[in-house]
Amino acid sequence: MATATGSDLLPTRSHELLQRADAELIAAQFSSEAWERFYHSHLAALRGGAALLAVRGRPGGRRPPRTVWDMLRVVAPELGFWSDCFAGGAGLRSAIEAGRFDAVSEERAEQALCAAEDFIDELRALLAAEAPTAQQVHGAATRRLGLRAS
After folding, report:
1. Model's pTM, two decimal places?
2. How far apart are alpha carbons 42 and 95 in whole angstroms?
3. What domains appear along the chain, each with residue ranges and CATH number?
4. CA neighbor of 79 nearest in space, from 51, 111, 40
């Protein structure tokens, strides 16, 4: 009998966002231009951050944070380093979107790719630790149905 792993038990939206982050990382790895590598790396990190928000929820309040990075600082303070790292690159991503492809050096693009890979790895570990086990899911389903284990 196969058992479900932590990532198999993530909410669908979170799982989809992680898959999109993986696709962006692959695109970054195969990009020949520095600006493309940076752009896809930053989007991978953005998708990964959104995957965690899909699990932990978005912060509320009177003036809730607006960006993924600001929201992560609230719901995942342990990822503050990464929030700062990628928030600092948002302006550069905007410059790329505005057509300033020369704004990114090879070195900066490589740094962004390495950071995005490390961030996604850390997110996966964090999400796997928070995901319910297959036994917990089965137990909750059994209780909802009013069944007793025999």
Report:
1. 0.79
2. 13
3. 11-58+66-142 (1.20.120)
4. 51
